[in-house]
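Hi! If you just cloned this repository, the fastest way to understand the data is to look at a raw example. We've pasted two of them here, unedited. The first protein comes first, obviously.
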Amino acid sequence: MSGLPETDVARVQRWCRARVPERVRDQVRVEADIASRHVTVVECRPPWRADMGTAWTRFPIARLRYVKATGQWSLYWAGPEPAVPCIRPGGRDGEYRGLAGGGRP
C-alpha cells in the first residue's frame, strides 16, 4: 500500500461512496485515487457516446496531501477555470477535518 495512514484512507473512501446515492451510481461516482503521498478525489462519469469506448472519465475534484513527518493533511482543490491547471491550498482545519484526518487537518 502507500505511506498514508490506512484509517484515514478508509475514511476518505467511505466519504466518497457516501456522496452518490446507490440508485445513480451508473451515472456518476465519486472515488479516491490513492498515491504514495496523497489521495485525489475524482468525479467519474460513463461515456456519453457509444463510440467513446467503455472507460469512464475521471475529473479531479480535490487532493489531500499527507506529510508523514508531521502527520498533517493539506487540502487542495482545482481552480474554477478549466484552462488553469492549478491546485490551491484550501480550507481551515474544521472545513475538512471530518473528511480525512479525524482530529487532524
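Ok, and the second one:
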Amino acid sequence: MIHAGFSRIRSDVTKRAPRVIDSPYVDRVANKYISTLELIEDEEFAAGLARLRADVTQNGRLDRPMVWDAVVISGWTLAERPSELRISLN
C-alpha cells in the first residue's frame, strides 16, 4: 500500500462468536442478508439454499457453527492536487 501512495496504514481484525446454523439463520440467508449473496446466480443460489434447508431440517441445525472472522486493511491517501478533493455532506 505504501508503493500505491497510502500512509497511516492499519489492519483491524474482527471476530464474532460462532453462530448456530439453524432455521432462523436459513431464513436470513434466504433473504440475502449478506450483500455478496446477490452475486450468486439465481439458480445456483436456489440450489444451495434448498440443500441448506434440507440439511438443517434433518437435524434442526448443522453440526458446525458459522465462524465469522474479518481482516480490514485501510490507509489514507490524498489526491495529487487539493482541488481534486471533494467532500459531500449530502
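That's it. A detail worth noticing about the second one: The chain has one domain: 2-77.
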